[in-house]
Amino acid sequence: AAVDAFAQARTGKRAPLISDFRGDISFAHDDFAAAEKSWRDYLATKPNRADTARVWEKLGDLFVDQKRWRDLLEARTHQFEAEKTAANRVARAIALLRLEQWDAAFAEMRQANAQDPSDDQVEEWLPQFERFKKLLPQIKVLSAGLAKNPQNYDLRLDRARLFILTGRPLLAADDAQTALQAEPTSMRARVQLAEALYDAKDKEAAQKLEVSAQLARDGGHVEEGKLRELRTLDTSLRAKPSATEALVGRAKILRELNQFVLAQRDAESALKIDANSAAAHFELAQDLDGLGQTKEALEHATKATDLDASDSAKWYFRGLTEGKRADFAAAIQSLSHSLALRESAVALRTRAEYLRRIDDNARAEADETRLRDISPK
Fold first, then answer.
1. Which of 171, 93, 81 has its CA nearest to residue 130?
2. How far is the CA of 330 from the CAs of 39, 319, 348, in angstroms?
3. N or C: which end of the chain has fewer CB within 10 A?
4. CB-based contact 81:74 (threshold 8 Å)
């Protein structure tokens, strides 16, 4: 304001550049409406081409923050018209991509590369467009399906998956967000949205979904098979929210994705429906163990073996949890139950370790000998 007043005192009118500066200050204070008005006021003074391109670029960045994609394309078009550089062509190509104008985006990128293949923006973005191009036929098929049926959220999440694979997390986030808003109970949508947000470096937004940064990835991406299983289980639970088996199954997948909080919630929901579900107690025990709550985990592991004493896996996990709490005598007994039901190398190895802890070396050596017999490696 002081600079504005000084300029008016010297010239009798507001200097055009003041509007540009006011826009910068407003934007820095997140007053986007004021920033847009100031920058448009400056553009109305018809500055030179370089300044025109520079201010349209700033307006474009503002529209990105506000997710105003059509306004973004307009800004990038004006930016390019003011200065017809390869970099500004790339910026316009990206805006076209956001509006799902695939062919136009690729045409713009080809022209940018033809104009100046050594431009920094061309060198950065051309490989990304080429990676996107490999899956473009599949993306177009899904896009055509969505044009006919925008409410098909399975198609939308399938497309979000392709966007993730092509390195376009913001496009993936748009699709996953739309799906999650329509189906708030969908764990597939929640996981896919969180993955996209983490890829877009928006950790805070991802964690608001209660999806931790320890999200399990296979080759940098959530495993396709896990997403398919979540889709099936989400569908079952939409049809029958009280399906205990589906809740336990979904909790298991979430645990395998290292999402113990969400897994715990599903397991607890299953127990509210059926307090005597051995599978739900077993799942909850593993979820709590993943959260470091071994005391509570042991309570549910014990309940699981009480309800189903014929499952070697439940006895093994109970023994493992007892061992974590340094109750080696109880752990050895539980592991012995597990081995009596089904011999396994992991149970033998763990029991031998616990036998060493209580100095029962003779029995430990017997387990180790047996271990070498069944698993020489």
1. 93
2. 73, 7, 15
3. C
4. no
